[in-house]
Amino acid sequence: MANTPQARKRIRRNERRAEINGNRLSRIRTFVKKVETALAGGDKTAAAEALKAAQPELARGVARGVLHKNTVARKMSRLTKRVASL
């Protein structure tokens, strides 16, 4: 139980931030999933378009502090390699 006003405020703030960050992560996962489904379908143009849309979302995740930059770099690299290999 939070005993100080500051601790109570931090709890409220953390709940709000957790919801916002969860929404951001969900949005990023959706964009990555679009690339994955296009890759599974074997459609190179759709996969390239989906990747083009996903890259700024991933970068935004880094800027907002939702994802680590190395995680995003790894994901982008792997997706780009898979799209190029189609």
Task: Report on this structure.
It is a single chain. This protein has 86 residues and is mainly alpha-helical. The chain has a single domain (5-84), classed as Ribosomal protein S20 (Methane Monooxygenase Hydroxylase, Chain G, domain 1). Helices cover 85% and strands 0% of the residues. It has helices spanning 5-41, 44-63, 69-84. α1 (5-41) packs antiparallel against α2 and α2 runs antiparallel to α3. The longest helix has 37 residues, at 5-41. It is elongated, with a radius of gyration of 17 Å. It starts with a helix and ends with a helix. The model has no long low-confidence stretch (mean pLDDT 96). Keywords: Ribonucleoprotein, Ribosomal protein, RNA-binding, rRNA-binding. GO terms for molecular function: small ribosomal subunit rRNA binding; structural constituent of ribosome. It comes from Novosphingobium aromaticivorans (strain ATCC 700278 / DSM 12444 / CCUG 56034 / CIP 105152 / NBRC 16084 / F199).
Write a concise keyword list for the protein shown above.
single chain; 86 residues; mainly alpha; Methane Monooxygenase Hydroxylase, Chain G, domain 1; 0% strand; elongated
